[in-house]
Amino acid sequence: MKKALIFDLDNTVYPVASIGAQLFESVYALLEQKLDSDTYKKVQEDVTRMPFQKVAKIYAFSEDLKQDSLQLLRGLRCDEAIEPYEDYLQTKDLKIDKFLVTIGFTELQLSKIRQLQIENDFKEIYIVDPDKSAITKRDIFQQIKEKYNYTFDEMLVIGDDPESEIAAATVLGIDTYLYDPEKRHSATNAVHHSDSFTGLKDILN
Predict the structure, then answer these.
(1) Which residues lie in coiled coils (predicted)?
(2) What is the phi/psi pair of residue 14, to 5°?
(3) How many C-beta neighbours within 10 Å does residue 184 have?
(4) Any bridge partners for residue 155, and if so which?
(5) Sequence-separated (6 or more) residues with CB below 8 Å from residue 66
(6) DSSP letter string over 101-153?
């Protein structure tokens, strides 16, 4: 039986696309000036789906472009209401320990959490900030296990990224639930893979 659910935030609790254009406007303007058109379009999409530091590495940003972008990102805050996925709302009544483990800039992630009004949904909230620390999601999953005396079998990690939280949990032997509402992924290493949370309750028993 599962005793702990660990949720990702971006594209798991809510769709980043719903706020991305306005939130990242200043960053997009900089990138559009510095990148060719094809690269810019790819980067614009990837920035909403993975940590900026990873995007900068994939597309070999110059150090100046990376630092200028980071400076803008450090100052971003979300000041508009955010609507969570309808699927996420189904999970609010689950009688189980729930944790939020998200990666990104600390103040930006905190502002999203406040606008979503989900602070009280979780036993604890963890923000993995590559701009401040080398701690990873895998490290946090291990910390949660040890702090609350769970076994890995009693935990379930839920997220949208096969290469981030899903991969980290798999290495530790934690069951995974790949949430894929846009059906972006075919073959993955996730234990469970669905475009909704409809079957989540059955997995917990």
Answers:
(1) none
(2) -150, 160
(3) 12
(4) 4
(5) 56
(6) EEES-HHHHHHHHHHHT-GGG-SEEEEE-TTT----HHHHHHHHHHHHT--GG
* Strand, coil or helix: 95: coil
- CA–CA dist 82, 147 (Å, integer): 31
Taken as a whole, the chain contains a residue count of 205
Q: What is the pLDDT of residues 181-200, one digit of tens each?
A: 989 888 678 999 999 999 89
Q: Can you tell me the distance from the alpha carbon of 174 to that of 154, in angstroms, rounded to the nearest whole number?
A: 8
From CA 191, how far away is CA 152, in angstroms rounded? 14
**Helix 25-34 with 63-74: angle, nearest 10 deg:** 170
pTM (predicted TM-score) = 0.93
What Å distances lie between residue 143 and 1, 166, 202, CA to CA?
20, 17, 26
H or E segment to which residue 5 belongs: strand 4-7
For residue 189, the model assigns a pLDDT of 87
What count of other Cβ atoms lies within 10 Å of the Cβ of residue 46? Answer: 15
Determine contact, residues 190/39, Cβ cutoff 8 Å. no
